[in-house]
Amino acid sequence: MSRWSLPPSAIPTAWFNVIPHLTSPLQPPLHPGTREPVGPDDLAPLFPMALIGQEVSTDPWIDIPGEVLDILRLWRPTPLVRATRLEKALGTPARIYFKDESVSPSGSHKTNTAVAQAFYNKQEGIARLTTETGAGQWGTALSFACSQFDLDLKVYMVRTSYEQKPYRRIAIETWGGEVVPSPVDDPNNPGSLGSAISDAVRDCVSRDDTHYSLGSVLNHVLLHQTVIGLEAKEQLEQAGERLPDVVIAPCGGGSNLGGITFPFVPEKDVRLLAVEPVSCPTLTQGTFDYDFGDVAGTTPLLPMYTLGHDFMPPSIHAGGLRYHGDAPLVSQLVRDGRMEAVAYPQGKVFEAAVQFTRTEGKIPAPETSHAIRAAIDEALAAKETGEEKVILFNFSGHGFLDLAAYDDYNNGRLPEEQG
Amino acid sequence: MSRWSLPPSAIPTAWFNVIPHLTSPLQPPLHPGTREPVGPDDLAPLFPMALIGQEVSTDPWIDIPGEVLDILRLWRPTPLVRATRLEKALGTPARIYFKDESVSPSGSHKTNTAVAQAFYNKQEGIARLTTETGAGQWGTALSFACSQFDLDLKVYMVRTSYEQKPYRRIAIETWGGEVVPSPVDDPNNPGSLGSAISDAVRDCVSRDDTHYSLGSVLNHVLLHQTVIGLEAKEQLEQAGERLPDVVIAPCGGGSNLGGITFPFVPEKDVRLLAVEPVSCPTLTQGTFDYDFGDVAGTTPLLPMYTLGHDFMPPSIHAGGLRYHGDAPLVSQLVRDGRMEAVAYPQGKVFEAAVQFTRTEGKIPAPETSHAIRAAIDEALAAKETGEEKVILFNFSGHGFLDLAAYDDYNNGRLPEEQG
Hints:
Two copies of one chain form a homodimer.
Chain A lengths: L2 E2 L9 E3 L23 H4 L5 H8 L4 E3 L2 H7 L7 E3 L1 H7 L4 E6 L10 H13 L4 E6 L3 H13 L2 E7 H6 L1 H9 L3 E5 L10 H13 L4 E3 L6 H6 L2 H12 L7 E5 L4 H7 L9 E7 L4 H4 L1 E6 L8 E6 L21 H8 L4 E5 L1 H15 L5 H20 L4 E6 L7 H8 L9
Parallel strand pairs in A: 5-15, 6-7, 6-9, 7-8, 10-11, 10-15, 11-14
Antiparallel strand pairs in A: 1-4, 2-3, 4-5, 12-13
């Protein structure tokens, strides 16, 4: 047997909060004007109180509302798969497992927090959400979630993506969301995630019926993703494994990484590994400091590894990993030595993606392929030492909407990179 | 509970052969030159003997080889899902279930027969396969399967699809297959499935190491798809249902339709419903007669419902349903009154697809959406009568690579149709 599918009744009913397990206290976000810690009132125009509460909660477990569980059960628990064909191709004694988050309606892990955020906003009487999206992975997930709770949604999409990558824009519209290119006030500007955040926040604060929604970085977002690691832990036990030796995930803002690794933080023998692109090496080359979440410098200051909020990463295919900073929770774990990080160039990542596709069958998203590269390298290292290492990685999303990237790789058109 | 996932160990270990259950004998295919029944020797240049044997077998069950099961278990059994959110939106007392074939590596049911065909060819010492593909659903499935058995693959892709729909071409290449536009000898010709079949067959017969592979229509192809219906039957029992009142699937060549309906043929109270586009109404408007499988008239003559092998259906988004004929097994069941057929115009089909997407979350392929339209109409009829009808349909594939079609629908750009 090489695939473990839990029944919908086995879905975790509480999220795992990593905050009580940190070895040093988490520093608070600071107001961009006063540089004092932000309070609930500062955030209330943007987020519902339930999410603001989760942002600072020190409860070890937080119950998942029944209405959220009902929707998550459309695709959760997701399968845990042992990649026996990849193992064989590598000739490794390691056992490689992946958690398949690509089976969600929008094709990635993003849907886990989208549903929770839509629910809490609806519960607080909000009628409409705004958000930004780059390549569109987050926008699709939130549009699906808003369709489930009958919420209106306006997505500010980075203009270059809006014009060059229409498929995710169409998917957002098919679920009922409205999409506009950003920046809205300058049709000649190609846009950036920073400009799109500014547009979405400006829209939100101008209307009483509207809140803003973020798909990564914040504590409550990572909290909602911990269903991934909780399920994986139970499925590994079913597979006869005690614990993995290493848990691996790609890191952009840090949400899928936090989701699969946090439930393993208390298990001191389990290594946790973040994988990032060499072109945006926040954890491997950045500085731990307070910095803004957006390019314009209007969000609260967050304590995190950062390349500087004005850092402009080169255009790479893993658009979800092009962020100048990291989630404070991930940053803290790296700073405290509980989590490791490694960076790979794009070509090595696609080489791993194609090897995975031809052995295990599924085409991974470019972001996901970073984790596959690291998992393969861990398995090859185990081949050298003969160690029967247990490797777990997060298959965070499929690559059906990223095939143009594979075309570039297949035809030798990937841009050169250092590293 | 609204989703039933069987463990990989519960996969069916034999295919269900519908031939012994037909009420009138199946007429044989005829040689295009002599008009005499074709024998195994006529087909040996194209297919391995194991598949030729399956084509005419009257055994009620045919064992699935272990090597095929090992690969099918990467994603099978597929989930059976009860569409409770769609039911609620419709206000129907009907219970609607769908079998989710979109979770396969290539995103559709086509992978089920692709794996079996690749296996039998490899077993007979074949090194290389050729095939044709229209929009690319079949080409992707066979490319995945060939990667698993280390077979070379050359796909002749209808030139207009090759040029206008690059994503499935890229996916075929990523799994290792070679793709060329067809017709190969005329770069100004937009091509058709008929020309692509001619190219693929010509290539095949010119080389001793090469066989040809077909993704629908033939008896052995439909046989390999019966895992769908066999699993669904078991899962419905788990869900507490005795039998469905009606089983629904889209019909192009007939392979996904045969796959989900054939195991229910012996259950006389279960209605079987084929759904086709009004623009290519083979079962509802065609004639039952011997006709060629390809436009050029070079294949054996098959007994089937046909619009004439030179019928050129208008360009619609459900490319998989643009075929002038139907599988002989499906045709026979319709002629004998055991199976019904209904045709829908494209706009009504997309209306159903969007309603499904906004309730159940998943974006269906345009072909699949035909079954959804019929399922919704059956459920609405049950609402009128108050009947607690049990409806089962085949969710044959996802629509991530068909989003341009949704863009046309969302923006009122679908071409006009009769019906």
